[in-house]
Amino acid sequence: MASSSKRSLPCVLLLLLLAVFHHGCSSARAHRRAGDMEGSMSTDDSSMIERFQRWKAAYNKSYATVAEERRRFRVYARNMAYIEATNAEAEAAGLTYELGETAYTDLTNQEFMAMYTAPAPAQLPADESVITTRAGPVDAVGGAPGQLPVYVNLSTSAPASVDWRASGAVTPLKNQGRCGTHNP
Prior knowledge:
By secondary structure, the protein is mainly alpha-helical. It has helices at 2-39, 46-58, 66-92, 109-116; strands spanning 130-133, 136-139.
């Protein structure tokens, strides 16, 4: 029994040493990547790089190459500039909404739309005032031929704002993943 524990002690020490070495290598690799990014950025970007690193940790993001990480950082920085400018404009205008970081902040608009929305519907026919059914064409009601109908808002005292959540008209946000439909 004593000889068995003497043999297992070096194995345990070796495993511990390998674990520490692996953690050190991973950490050094991450610092080297951050250093590679910082080497090509100005000092003004260093705080953005720190934000990007925190964002990556929060959303468990990683990239296959340094080049891809640099590209994603540039997209992230552009999106953050847009978010901050939009929030400043909204605040100045007295609006109550605010944009923020999400798991998609490293995607361009085109990438997001391609990944998370449905394809665009087919183009409408040239004459949008005519609806074709099995029974034949149906003209729009209330307009001159070739014109779309005009709808008038009869309410004269619209509220300054409406919280559709409070009135039960909408449900809480859900992550639909790659599904582009609007039905839950």
